[in-house]
């Protein structure tokens, strides 16, 4: 499946907010932004969609357990424990767990404050 095909709906995902930092007082020009860290669990067969970008929301991901498949640029890359990837303004992707055990990642990104 590539970005030209339909992406399955999100299913089997649990997101736990671990911490946030208000960046306004920390870095000039960052008012209204926060640094956010989340623990994301993908059950076997889980999909994190839809196809989405990271414009104005850069981040990094680190895999703790299992394998997560990152679909982007017409290809699919598997990432296991100890690996991760950047998510910058050029990222357009969706994720899934094709494995038989839960996959767990730490996701850290900069977002607009709710």
UniProtKB/TrEMBL annotation:
It comes from the Bacteria. SUPFAM superfamilies: RmlC-like cupins. Residues 39-108 form the Cupin type-2 domain. Pfam families: Cupin_2. This is Protein containg Cupin domain. InterPro entries: Cupin_2 (IPR013096), RmlC-like_jellyroll (IPR014710), RmlC_Cupin_sf (IPR011051).
């Amino acid at each position: 499946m590539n970005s030209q095909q339909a992406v399955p709906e999100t299913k089997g995902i649990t997101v736990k907010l671990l911490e946030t930092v208000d960046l306004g007082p920390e870095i000039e020009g960052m008012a209204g932004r926060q640094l956010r860290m989340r623990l994301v669990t993908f059950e076997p067969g889980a999909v994190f969609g839809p196809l989405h970008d990271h414009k104005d929301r850069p981040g990094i991901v680190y895999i703790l357990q299992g394998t997560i498949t990152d679909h982007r640029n017409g290809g699919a890359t598997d990432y296991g424990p100890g690996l991760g990837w950047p998510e910058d303004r050029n990222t357009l992707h969706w994720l899934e767990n094709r494995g038989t055990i839960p996959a767990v990642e730490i996701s850290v990104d900069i977002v607009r404050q709710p």
